[in-house]
Design a protein that fits this description.
The complex is a heterodimer of chains A (about 575) and B (about 180). By secondary structure, chain A is mainly alpha-helical. Chain A is built from 22 helices and 4 strands. In chain A, a hairpin with a 5-residue loop joins β3 and β4. Chain A is globular, with a radius of gyration of 22 Å. Chain B is mainly α and about 180 residues long. The chains are: A mainly alpha (about 575), B mainly alpha (about 180). At the A-B interface, α8, α9, α17, α18 and α19 of A face α1, α2, α3, α4 and α5 of B.
């Protein structure tokens, strides 16, 4: 492999101007990311307008900063408030919040920052090696392969994802339908425009993402928390000590490998890997602190895995042009706005831009580490600002940002419409992530589906001449059949498989065998978990039903573990996080 | 597993959804919507599918060898319709929906205020509607005191003006 473009790319990145953009991105990403309920997808969507008027390379660098800043912002709220910004951070809260309660929140945040850095960096290094290879392979893909791949991606996101599978599939179908609005690329006919000129070119992705992730969350919080925000637990020294790092080293190593591999999966890579890492660390724990009481290994492993997975999910995006989750869908859109079309052609046709995207991730990750430790106190201060003040300010920024997309009020109205739709979806248990992802992939799927039909002259059996497509369709079938088979087995041998997954709100089984209650998985990219227990195939967390508190971000709340008499079990500690500052 | 039956038997899970002044409702007491709500969710999903299918049929579904503009929307609409039916059929099994409480009035008022402010922006510039919106959200919906919300709103709008109009040169409709 020729590393010249990689090295040349660094020369550009390390210019002071670009470093400053990265710094601004990380700060802005953390500032928005620490707001409870706003995950990385919402953070990027809200801050995207900042990059519109910039050149591609500084804008990519800033986006990388926002991406990492947004992810770490979720960790801060997970540790200090037990309100993870995204589902994957819910696992961090399991040990991070007990640590914070013991006055060691700084330790958790410091280890979290280092673990995030290592996890992210490991993934970027491997991504640097394998991305061009996969992209080269993907160049052979034609319409049937892309049809199968896109279908598989949407189905995985809907089924591995959060909450009820049926409702997730409904969201995905709605997303596919929304993607058809506008002029048909094949026949030129207008579809679902209702005579509106603004809809002729179809709906744009960014206002939809801003609506269902950003505004919807604020509207949801408006209903549930009209009296301010939670008080974060005070933090101590953030810089990890030698002893802490020694204890965390092995979990970080294991988490990095696990996270990278599982992050390649569409849908729930980051969450699944964090859960799996937690399960492994719990089983291997020989430390003095039991899990559930603030074991630092339970922060280090999942945080590394979560960040490694978040970064490795760039691989399907950059090499195949397929976003693997909602955050990647927003990144996909952000890159498109800059004239960069992620996909197999990118590395061949525009290597400078391709390597800029990858190198900017190194930079974003490093800047985050450098900034996170000294500035953590500043970001924690944001948590003290009441949501009654912060929410309207974010709403205004979202509105002005939406206007800048096309300089039309129409886009702002789209944000409002989708904000209300997103609010209703959250209320009724529909995860917005499949809708958003299906919307992004909708036109790609339809185009390739129709091209395939034209190629085969309507004879779909001719797909058998395309082995990759057949393999992908086979996988698709497996994804559909596995839950049905599991259900059958469960009905006959309930002792073999655990409790019901979603739909009943109890939890979701993942392909690793790990099991998370719907409350954890309900979060999606935009929201957070409410009650979390990790229970990997074996034992992880079976006794860790610590019930990560649902906060303003709420998402769908699940019932916490209950005692046999039906009353709510435990939660004596919740008073600390659940109290609110009095009104001034 | 927490199913609907257990839900009913668990007194802690049932409350009005309103929190005491100054506190958010505890997650464990967040009310769950019942079967009817999920039934309506399924029905609305199916109806959306039927509506979209009717439009798709009008567009023309063509054939497999010559797909028309309505082919793909028809397939997706049909999926939506069927999924809606499944949701309705399994309505009693879902516990992930929440009922709309009277606190949702604040959400509706907030969304309407936002819409009005946005519609005013092209007419009078973004500054005045933005200040009015911020003051309204902070003081009426957020119960902040006016002596805090008014100066804060003016400051925020000034900062947004400086950032977007002067810093990023975005042609936002503006008064100044």
């Amino acid at each position: 492999m020729d590393f010249t473009p990689v090295i040349e790319g660094f020369e550009v990145l390390l210019q002071p101007e670009n470093l400053m953009f990265c710094l601004i991105g990380v700060v802005a990403g953390m500032a928005i990311g620490v707001l409870p309920g706003l995950g990385p997808a919402a953070t990027i969507a809200i801050l995207l307008p900042l990059t519109y008027s910039m050149d591609p390379i500084p804008s990519i660098i800033m986006l990388a900063g926002i991406f990492y800043g947004g992810i770490y912002g979720g960790t801060v709220t997970a540790v200090l408030l037990k309100l993870p910004g995204e589902t994957a951070s819910a696992i961090t809260a399991l040990e991070g919040y007990p640590l914070a309660q013991k006055g060691q929140g700084g330790k958790a945040l410091g280890v979290g920052a280092v673990a995030s850095f290592i996890g992210g960096t490991v993934s970027i290094v491997v991504l640097t090696m394998v991305a061009p290879v996969i992209a080269g392979f993907a160049l052979e893909f034609g319409p049937p392969e892309y049809t199968a791949l896109t279908l598989l991606g949407i189905l995985l996101v809907a089924t591995i994802g959060n909450g009820s599978k049926l409702k997730a599939l409904a969201g995905a179908a709605l997303g596919l339908l929304l993607a058809t609005v506008g002029r048909d690329a094949f026949t030129g006919e207008l579809r679902y425009t209702a005579g509106s000129l603004e809809l002729t070119d179809g709906l744009q992705f960014v206002p939809i993402a801003m609506g269902v992730f950003g505004l919807a969350e604020i509207l949801y919080n408006l209903e549930r928390r009209r009296n301010g925000g939670s008080i974060p637990v005070a933090t101590d020294r953030v810089l990890p000590t030698k002893a802490t790092m020694k204890e965390s080293a092995a979990p970080i190593g294991r988490g990095g490998v696990l996270g990278f591999l599982l992050g390649l999966l569409p849908g729930g890579g980051a969450t699944v890997s964090a859960m799996a890492s937690y399960g492994i660390e719990k089983r291997l724990n020989k430390g003095s602190t039991p899990f559930g009481k603030g074991a630092i290994r339970g922060v280090a492993g999942p945080e590394t895995a979560n960040n490694a997975a978040a970064t490795s999910s760039f691989i399907p995006l950059l090499t195949l042009g397929i976003p693997a989750n909602a955050t990647m869908a927003v990144m996909f859109s952000a890159l498109l706005i800059q004239g960069i079309t992620p996909g197999p052609q990118l590395v061949a046709t525009d290597p400078d831009l391709f390597w800029s995207v990858i190198n900017s991730m190194y930079l974003g990750n490093i800047v985050l580490l450098v900034l996170a430790i000294p500035l953590i106190g500043v970001f924690v201060r944001i948590l003290y600002v009441r949501s009654s003040i912060l929410s309207p300010i974010i709403v205004l920024i979202v509105c002005i940002g939406a206007y800048t997309i096309s300089n039309r009020i129409f886009e702002v109205m789209v944000v409002i419409v989708f904000g209300v739709l997103g609010y209703l979806m959250k209320k009724y248990g529909f995860d917005p992530a499949p809708l958003v992802l299906a919307f992004v992939l909708g036109s790609l799927l339809e185009d390739n589906f129709r091209r395939s039909l034209l190629m085969f002259d309507g004879d779909v059996t001719r797909v058998t001449g395309h082995p990759i497509a057949v393999t992908l369709l086979g996988l698709l079938l497996v994804v559909v059949l596995i839950p049905i088979l599991l259900k059958l087995v469960k009905s006959r041998r309930p002792d073999l498989i655990g409790e019901d997954e979603n739909g009943t709100g109890a939890g979701a089984e993942t392909e690793t065998g790990a099991k998370v209650p719907a409350s954890v998985t309900a979060g999606s990219e935009a929201g957070a978990a409410s009650g979390a227990e990790s229970d990997s195939a074996s034992d992880a967390g079976s006794d860790t039903a610590s019930g990560v508190a649902t906060g303003p971000n709420g998402d769908r709340r699940d019932h916490p573990p209950r005692s046999p008499d039906g009353s709510s079990a435990e939660r004596p500690e919740e008073g600390a996080a659940g109290s609110h500052p009095s009104q001034t | 597993m927490m199913d609907a039956a257990e839900d009913k038997s668990a007194p802690a899970a049932v409350d009005t959804g309103r929190a005491p002044e100054g506190q958010e409702p505890a997650p464990e007491t967040a009310p769950r919507a019942g079967r009817v709500t999920n039934l309506v969710c399924g029905a609305v999903t199916s109806l959306a599918g039927v509506g979209a299918l009717a439009v798709a049929m009008d567009l023309g579904t063509g054939s497999l060898s010559q797909p028309g503009a309505g082919t793909w929307p028809a397939i997706v609409s049909l999926m939506l319709f069927v999924i809606g039916l499944f949701i309705a059929a399994r309505a009693a099994h879902f516990t992930d929906a929440e009922p709309i409480t009277k606190d949702a009035v604040g959400v509706a008022v907030g969304a309407i205020a936002l819409t009005v402010a946005v519609q005013l922006m092209p007419l009078v510039g973004f500054e005045l509607p933005s200040v009015a919106l911020l003051v309204f959200w902070m003081s009426v919906l957020g119960r902040e005191k006016l002596r805090l919300s008014v100066p804060l709103s003016v400051l925020v709008v000034a900062a947004v003006h400086l950032t977007f109009v002067h810093g990023l040169a975005v042609p936002v409709p503006r008064l100044f």
